[in-house]
Amino acid sequence: xxxxxxxxxxxxxxxxxxxxxxxxxxxxxxxxxxxxxxxxxxxxxxxxxxxxxxxxxxxxxxxxxxxxxxxxxxxxxxxxxxxxxxxxxxxxxxxxxxxxxxxxxxxxxxxxxxxxxxxxxxxxxxxxxxxxxxxxxxxxxxxxxxxxxxxxxxxxxxxxxxxxxxxx
Length: 168
Prior knowledge:
Blueprint: H1 2-21, E1 26-29, H2 31-36, H3 39-76, H4 82-136, E2 140-143, H5 157-167
Parallel strand pairs: 1-2
Helix pairs in contact: 3-4, 4-5
């Protein structure tokens, strides 16, 4: 009986030791956050915002102009002639078309700049990730956005941001 117990215990130890050594080293990263918090990306984003600020201001002015024309039409519409009402409505429609065009143009510019930023930063991010994977021995690295839940002890976003800042 004692021999059976000893044999069973030894077999259990061997089996569980194999399971314990097969544990995966898993990491999770929020690449958008890692990039956005890096100093280089912040500087590039500031430059992009400065480039697009003029178009944003123009868009805001156009929206304000539409709003003031609508308020004028609503406030004074009853005492205006039909021709004046049509003229203001036509101006509003024309400005809305301009607003939509300018908004689409600005959105395209933002997307283009975002793509340029990713082209600059993606190789750097990949190099940092590769270094960290080699250094820490991660078996699997997941993108946080594709997960429902991940324990924060597996999150390497801050480490990646720090490494990006070091390599700058």
